[in-house]
Amino acid sequence: MSEKKIKNIFVDGAITPDFIARSISNHSSKTDIGGHSIFMGQVRKDEIDGKLVAAIEYTAFEELALTKMHEIREAVFSKYPLSCMHVHHSLGTIKAGEICLFVFTSSKHRKPAIEACNELVEKIKSELPIWGKEIFADASHQWKENS
Amino acid sequence: MQIELISFGKLSDFIPNQNLEIEGIENTDDLKQYLEKIFPELAAMKYKLALNKNLVQQNSKIKNRDSIALMPPFSGG
Fold first, then answer.
1. For residue A101, what is the nearest residue in chain B, using CA coordinates?
2. Which bin fits A143, alpha (ψ -120 to 50), beta or left (φ > 0)?
3. A31/chain B closest Cα distance in angstroms
């Protein structure tokens, strides 16, 4: 493992449109960038057995998740010529319609940015020890399963 | 010996975090068998273990005061 500092990807609560806008504008000074790719995960109001999902409560095994994310970050950085990579994942209760995952990659050209962003999202969903609990309007719950 | 058991996701609904006194259990395979006996729901579920915050990929030796995490399939994002 490299000596780079392990970054914290976790955010308490929803990721706000303001935060995302600021994150985009922070890159205007990096003029070697020619393409950004952004993925945002939003909590869906699924209907399950006649009940609507009101929110998802996220918990994580944070230390393990951050170590794993560090490995993923290093692997994706060495595979694609990226200028920047930002990953933010919510913890706690996120209401339907709010953003719970924000992945942002930038490169000189579009293709590495797009491909790295896709690869990151897939790895985040399959390899990070994070769990979503779907909370229904009547306060009952079921644990989310990734498709 | 005593181990610290922590559980996540669906497993946290029926396995509370606890310090567990175990005898005659030397490795993670033994421990899985033992836990599936005391928590029968576990036997029917898919889960992974982490030993002292490292994902268990193969049977590993357990020592006194080790921390074991029980993790069902991930569902982040």
1. B77
2. beta
3. 30
Render the burial of A125-144: b for 16+ CB within 10 Å, e for the rest: bebbbbbbbbbbeeeebebb
CA distance B75 to B77: 7
B14 chain-A contacts, CB cut-off 8 A: none
Instruction: Work out the minimum CA distance from B75 to partner chain A, whole angstroms.
Output: 5
Please, which contacts does B11-15 make with residues 24 or more away whose CB atoms are closer than 8 Å? B11/B42, B11/B45, B11/B47, B11/B70, B11/B71, B11/B72, B12/A59, B13/A143, B14/B39, B14/B41, B15/B39, B15/B42, B15/B70
- Domains of chain B, residue spans: 2-71
Q: What is the pLDDT of residues B12-64, one digit of tens each?
A: 999 999 999 999 999 999 999 999 999 999 999 999 999 999 999 999 999 99
The whole-angstrom distance between B36's CA and the closest CA on chain A is 20
Q: Which CATH architecture has domain B2-71?
A: Roll (3.10)
Q: Say which CATH class A10-143 falls into.
A: alpha beta
Asked if A125 lies within 8 A of B76 by C-beta distance, the reply is yes
Q: What is the pTM of this model?
A: 0.94
A19/B contact by beta carbon, under 8 A: no
In this prediction the ipTM stands at 0.93
